[in-house]
Design brief:
The chain is α+β, with helices and mostly antiparallel strands. Helix content is 45%, strand content 11%. Bound molecules: iron/sulfur cluster.
């Protein structure tokens, strides 16, 4: 059975808009595309279905070499503040992409400048 709803944490609602199929392992890229292709998005707190396939997820915490779990949770909170969503709500990519132009400069200033994927996202 096809599952059309993706469960995503706050910062992935923004960052995945700039995913270009680069910068990750093939298996992880496939997982990200399967999420991007889902029609409905349910906003969750903490690890989501992208994290579930990520090698950095350890004991339900992000152990990225670049960010601490606390930094990632802060990014999630700020993403939801900027987009005007709360955990538990549902949305879709179209609704999010309409909000991105209004919020992307603040998001870039808050997080992208110090992110190792900045070039992957914005060239
Ligand atoms: S790096 Fe951390 S936040 Fe990003 S997908 Fe992996 S576990 Fe999730």
């Amino acid at each position: 059975m096809l599952v059309h709803k993706a469960k995503l944490r706050g910062h992935h609602l923004i960052c995945l808009n700039f995913f270009r199929g680069e910068g990750y392992s093939e298996d992880f890229i496939r997982q990200i595309y399967s999420v991007i292709n889902k029609e409905e998005l349910e906003i969750v707190e903490g690890p989501d279905e992208v994290c579930a396939r990520c090698p950095y997820l350890k004991e339900d915490r992000c152990s990225s070499s670049e960010f601490t779990d606390e930094m990632i949770i802060h990014q999630d909170e700020e993403a939801l503040r900027l987009l005007g969503f709360r955990p538990g709500e549902c949305t879709d990519w179209r609704t999010i992409s309409e909000k991105i132009p209004e919020i992307i400069e603040e998001w870039k200033n808050l997080f992208c400048m110090s992110c190792g994927y900045q070039k992957t996202c914005f060239g």
